[in-house]
Amino acid sequence: MNAWVSAGLALLALVLGGVLLGWQGVIFAMAGVVVWLLLQMRQLMRVMKLAGAAPPGSVASAATLASQLHAGMKLVDLISLAGSLGSKQAPETFAWRDAGGDAVEVVLRKGRLAEWRLLRAGEAAGSP
């Protein structure tokens, strides 16, 4: 969800709680916002725990990972799909390799997937 939408919904809940139920409504809305934030943190911690247990830059199948990627994907979703943290190639460029030597190289801009390419093991590294 967009950060602006989330902040707007939280503010709307606080205002509606205050208007409809007074200070108790504000407290109730704040409790809801805190629970939502805790759920988001739990999801992030679960993904990072799974990714931290795997060797960095490794993936079960590079071709499968490449087929599941789409532009605009969040970094957390990318790490969740790969199952590990990527190995840094350049600023904002990360790679994942499978056992066969195939690799997926991704470029992130502002924490979102901008472009990616599948590098097969048989292809030369510099060829188009």
UniProtKB/TrEMBL annotation:
The chain crosses the membrane at residues 6-39. Keywords: Membrane, Transmembrane, Transmembrane helix. The keyword Transmembrane helix applies. It comes from the Bacteria. This is Glycerate kinase.
